[in-house]
Specification:
Blueprint (H helix, E strand, L loop, with lengths): L11 E5 L19 E4 L12 H8 L9 E6 L1 H12 L3 E6 L10 H9 L14 H8 L5 H12 L2 H13 L9 E5 L14 E3 L6 H4 L1 H12 L11
Parallel strand pairs: 1-2, 1-3, 3-4, 4-5, 5-6
């Protein structure tokens, strides 16, 4: 009898949402991913000044050391995904609406960091200015806006303040490789001079929800290259 063929190995995805968001932003994406999908929920910071590497170590406890997988991080979730990947060398990182290093913070966020304005603005400010947030994050109307507004209301101020501080203190030296998926109309992390592997025309910072089909197509394509070697990116 001929030898039976081994069953194909399904890719494994770990999804990490953006600052203050949760698994609701992935509700359109998850059904489209071909593989095993896990959502990594945010943990409460151990203290207001918990270092990002220590936080990432706690997050990484849900990712087996010997598992080949994709860490899919959205916005600040991409920062955490890159830090988790330092601890999980078999993990591959896909950044959605995120940046691969602290040196790629846009001018606006560099100014905020330099002035320290984030230290005296209440972290829940956008909760009371949802239309400003809608514009800044590129959120559409109707169901999309209602979801965004609910996420704003559910934000935990202590976590939000910690996350903003952690992003501005991020030491990304010697960070590992990643695949970047960015929207051409992202106001939070607008495309800059650095090359982007996948640029979604018209995509905004909220495109993990609004352009889920395109993002799923890219992630499934990358997962199709799921071998012992890192994927080849265009």
């Amino acid at each position: 009898m001929p030898d039976s063929q081994p069953a194909p190995v399904l890719p494994v995805f770990y999804l990490i949402s953006g600052l203050g968001a949760d698994e609701r932003v992935f509700q359109r994406l998850i059904p489209l991913l071909r593989g095993t999908v896990h959502y990594l929920p945010w943990l409460a910071p151990a203290d207001p000044d918990e270092p990002l590497p220590a936080y990432a170590q706690r997050m990484a406890e849900s990712v087996p050391v010997d598992e080949r997988c994709w860490l899919v991080g959205v916005s600040f979730g991409g920062t955490v995904a890159l830090e988790i990947a330092r601890l999980r060398p078999l993990a591959l990182v896909a950044l959605v609406s995120s940046i691969p290093g602290a040196d790629q913070l846009p001018l606006l966020l560099k100014l905020v960091r330099a002035t320290g304005v984030q230290n005296w603005l209440p972290p829940q400010l956008l909760k009371f200015m949802p239309r400003l947030g809608q514009w800044y994050f590129g959120v559409g109307g109707g169901e999309e806006y209602r979801l965004f507004r609910q996420i704003l209301w559910d934000q935990e101020p202590g976590y939000t303040r910690w996350a903003v501080r952690s992003l501005f203190r991020w030491d990304s030296r010697d960070i590992g490789p990643s695949v970047q998926i960015l929207g051409s109309r992202d106001r939070v992390f607008p495309p800059g001079p650095a090359s982007v592997e996948y640029l979604i025309e018209g995509g905004t910072h909220f495109m993990v929800y609004s352009r889920a089909e395109e993002i799923a197509r890219i992630l499934n394509q990358l997962a199709g290259q799921f071998t012992a070697e890192p994927p080849v990116v265009p």
